[in-house]
Amino acid sequence: MRSYSLIAPAKINLYLEIIGDRPDGYHELAMVLQSIDLADQVDLRSLSTDTISVRCSHPQVPINRSNLAYQAAALMAAEFPDAFAQFGGVEITIDKRIPIAAGLAGGSSNAAAVLVGLDLLWQLGLTQSELEELGSQLGSDVPFCIAGGSAIATGRGERLSPLPSVDNLYVVLGKYRHLDVATAWAYQTYRANFGNTYVVNKQDLTSRAAAVHSSSMVQAIIHEDRFQIGQRLHNDLERVVIPAYPQILQLKETFQNAGCLGAMMSGSGSTVFALCDSENQAQKVHQQGRLLAQPSDLDLFIARLTSTGIQVMSSNKD
Ligand code: ATP
Question: CB within 6 Å of ligand 1 — which residues?
Fold first, then answer.
């Protein structure tokens, strides 16, 4: 039986702007997404039966059909029934290192790894855009997670334009273990509070989203201006998540006061990241995070920005 081990990196949002409502019920977004080297390991092993099974090292991650990795395998089985019949089912084992419900796209990255891994396991030879199209059926962040790196994401987040990679920047991530923010709640609350400011005309929605291509964040990335990248961090969802969870602001201010390029909540939270110029600066910010009132409930990680998405670590045939 053949098996593959894949690395599935987390992402952070360097920029997240909510522009308006889409006819499909989702929000029209303009984002800059960035992969980091904090990653899960996803192992795929062919089974001789036609079952899909999921195991995960984290007790709070569901291992049934609601797991995004399971859904990715079920989608592949439905799309490629001949390959599923020929190669059999799959056992998916997730070694979870990315905090869950954290705004770091852990589940989406696991799903992306399953798409990439099954393409190899079932010898389908899919292109990156075919994989991204399948990913968009599973979740808005899945297409980005496939190739990863640095990219502008518009639409629901599935329309991608790659950006040059920003090398040698570090992040310190802080996530309160018992503070999980539901993504759906954050977007619904934003709509309830700020829906009256949304762009409504379809053409205006498209041109506002397109404006992110010439935004100062994108210019800062193109020119590798690390200081400006730190200054231009932006996340509209902070406007609803921070008032509901004041610890997030406290953590952000602690990071900012420790001396980093900039600090921001990632996605719908609750992770806060500090962008750092060097490993040394990241260590100092990390130390300040440790001094916070409830260090036992606060998980802190140091990671590097990475230019890669899903990577095959090894493959075996036994
Ligand atoms: P995003 O940034 O895309 O909104 P997130 O980091 O906020 O994602 P996830 O860690 O992907 O959130 O998980 C959100 C919820 O999805 C979890 O609470 C969990 O119940 C469920 N879930 C389903 N599949 C997975 C998976 N493979 N890994 C983690 N969580 C999963």
Answer: 61-62, 66-69, 94, 100-108, 110, 141, 183, 267-268
Cα gap 265→243, rounded to integer Å: 13
CA of 126 to the centre of ligand 1 (A): 25
Task: Decide the pairing of beta strands 150-155 and 272-276.
Answer: unpaired
Q: What is the reported pTM?
A: 0.95
Q: What is the pLDDT of residues 61-119, one digit of tens each?
A: 999 999 999 999 999 999 999 999 999 999 999 999 999 999 999 999 999 999 999 99
Nearest alpha carbon to residue 168 among 37, 51, 258, 50: 37
Q: Give the closest residue to 305 by CA, choosing from 247, 252, 266, 268.
A: 266
CB-CB contact of 29 with 16 (8 Å): yes
User: What tens digit of pLDDT does each residue of 272-305 get?
Assistant: 999 999 999 999 999 999 988 767 799 999 999 9
The CATH class, in words, for 1-318 is alpha beta
Domain coordinates in residue numbering, the chain: 1-318
* Pair 263, 293: CB distance under 8 Å: no
